[in-house]
UniProtKB/TrEMBL annotation:
Residues 9-244, 260-505 form the ABC transporter domain. InterPro entries: AAA+_ATPase, ABC_carbohydrate_import_ATPase, ABC_transporter-like_ATP-bd, ABC_transporter-like_CS, P-loop_NTPase. It comes from Caballeronia sordidicola (Burkholderia sordidicola). GO terms for molecular function: ATP binding; ATP hydrolysis activity. This is Ribose ABC transport system, ATP-binding protein RbsA.
Length: 508
């Protein structure tokens, strides 16, 4: 193979096949040295598979990987790191019960005489966190941090190793705007220091802002590549999904009666500050309500309180005119409330289970046979799961495939499907499109619209302003635990929404 010295990594004929699925097919991929190399494609296009091969998390079925003009035999993550390749996976790979410093140096501990030097780890972690401009004490328990803060700790962990190629798989999916700006600053510093970045994101504006060059995958094949300066967003979308795919368009439909009424819902944090500060609102059957706010605004706490996952929350919740006194999650689900959680890996599914088992986990009562001592009727389960797979356009070889065999976007669809099988009257969705591509987002938007047309009230939290305005009948804005603005669709104003989401300027 003739190598190009401007390329730090080159692949030739790289392929990966799983049982029943060709995830990557004959890919010749180049990574330009000292640049931000954007990799994009729909979920299931092969992005994560390609990155796992480069990072040693998977081994190729065929093809070669060359690094610095030499063939690289990458068999595991350690060997990839030996070649200078590190990865920050889309799903967090951290330990919630350990401290921030312990997480940063997990598997790469600073030791002396076989004893871990905790003080030294704390010191070096503090230096790394300051470099990332993260005001977190390295002795803090990781589980006490927000998801966005945990994501930045993951980045610090990767930077603690001496790498020359850093793969970032959806690094901003849980970050606030301020944290994204910090990350971009760090990326630019890394480029100045000679570090090459491979950047995977579905936020097209980010790609245009931070990328130098772009490669597009579709259905496991490389379909386009160019410099960012030569392309625009329509070019990217067409390369990803093809010009024939129809885009989502908001459709008005008649709304029903009030189905959810919330009065003075309040929740205090352990420090005495309100996570929810006496929030009141109502939602009608068939209505789509987008809850927009920055990290820490109280969006997640609101949805969890509605589901019963915040037992200390006080206030009144009425469903179809009946006050709900029961506080635990199974009873709320039975009453007609379901939640698609923000963290699909930890809260939305069981990774050791199949697609079928995950999808029917919250609705097993529907599939038990009355005269068979509660035994599950598999045929009914399979029919229900296959119906959801068809409705949500889930790419899966079989309902019995491990849920972890799916791409991130298809995993998210399984979690959504699990909620739908409980037959909710109110469907809560926390960042339902976090970390999924443009095509998968379109599928989620269409699903939300169809559910609303069927009479289900959909309440979803999002940190993406364009998404909030595109899909919703109304937008609720939150800041510091308060509902700071409520806007009908005809009143949508991006500047006013952003202003209302900022605590210092928020006005109802």
């Amino acid at each position: 193979m003739s190598a190009n010295t401007n390329n730090v990594i080159e692949t030739k004929g790289l392929s990966k096949t799983y049982p029943g699925t060709a995830a990557l097919v004959d890919v010749n991929y180049t990574v330009q040295r000292g640049k931000v190399n954007v990799l994009i494609g729909e979920n299931g296009a092969g992005k994560s598979t390609l990155m796992k091969l480069l990072a040693g998390a998977e081994t190729p079925s065929a093809g070669e990987i060359w690094i610095d003009e030499k063939i690289a035999h990458i068999t595991d993550v350690r060997s990839a790191e030996h070649h200078g390749v590190g990865i920050i996976f889309q799903e967090l790979n951290l330990f919630p019960e350990m401290t921030v410093a312990e997480n940063i140096y997990a598997g790469n501990e600073i030791t002396s005489g076989g004893v871990i030097r905790s003080k030294s780890e704390n010191h070096h972690a503090k230096v790394l966190l300051e470099r990332l401009q993260i005001p977190i004490d390295p002795r803090t328990r990781l589980g006490d941090l927000y998801v966005g803060q945990q994501q930045l700790v993951e980045i610090a962990k990767s930077l603690s190793k001496h790498i020359k190629v850093l793969i970032m798989d959806e690094p901003t999916s849980a970050l606030s705007k301020t944290e994204v700006e910090i990350l971009f600053k760090i990326i630019r510093q890394l480029k100045e220091q000679g570090v090459t970045v491979i950047y995977i994101s579905h936020r097209l504006e980010e790609i245009m802002a931070i990328g130098d060059c772009i490669t597009v995958l579709r259905n496991g094949r490389l379909v386009a590549e160019d410099d960012i300066a030569n392309v625009d967003i329509p070019w990217i979308i067409e390369a990803m999904v093809g010009s024939s795919k129809k885009r989502f368009a908001f459709a008005q439909h008649a709304l029903g009666d009030e189905v959810l009424k919330v009065t003075d819902l309040a929740l205090k944090r352990s420090n005495g500050i309100y996570a929810l500060d006496h929030v009141s609102f109502s939602v009608r059957a068939g209505e789509v309500v987008g809850i927009y706010g920055l990290m820490g605004a109280g969006r997640t706490e609101l949805l969890e309180a509605l589901l019963g996952a915040q037992p200390l929350a006080i206030g009144s919740i009425e469903l179809a005119g009946q006050r709900i006194e029961r506080r635990n999650i199974p009873q709320r689900i039975e009453a007609g409330i379901a939640l698609v959680p923000e963290d699909r890996q930890k809260q939305g599914m069981v990774q050791l289970m199949t697609i079928l088992e995950n999808m029917t986990l919250s609705s097993l009562g529907k599939f038990t046979r009355r005269f068979a001592f509660g035994a599950l009727g598999r045929a009914k389960q399979v029919d229900a799961a296959n119906d959801v797979i068809k409705r949500l356009a889930i790419k899966a070889s079989s309902v019995d495939a491990p849920v972890t065999s799916l791409s991130g976007g298809n995993m998210q669809k399984v979690v959504i499907g699990k909620a739908l099988l409980t037959s909710p009257r109110v469907l809560l969705m926390d960042e339902p499109t976090r970390g999924i591509d443009v095509g998968a987002k379109e599928d989620v938007y269409k699903t939300i619209s169809l559910l609303a047309q069927s009479g289900i009230a959909v309440v979803y939290a999002t940190s993406e302003l364009d998404e909030a305005m595109a899909v919703s009948n109304r937008v609720f804005v939150m800041a510091s635990g308060k509902l700071t603005a409520v806007m009908e669709r005809a009143e949508f104003d991006s500047e006013r929404i952003v202003r209302a989401s900022t605590p210092a300027t928020a006005v109802v």
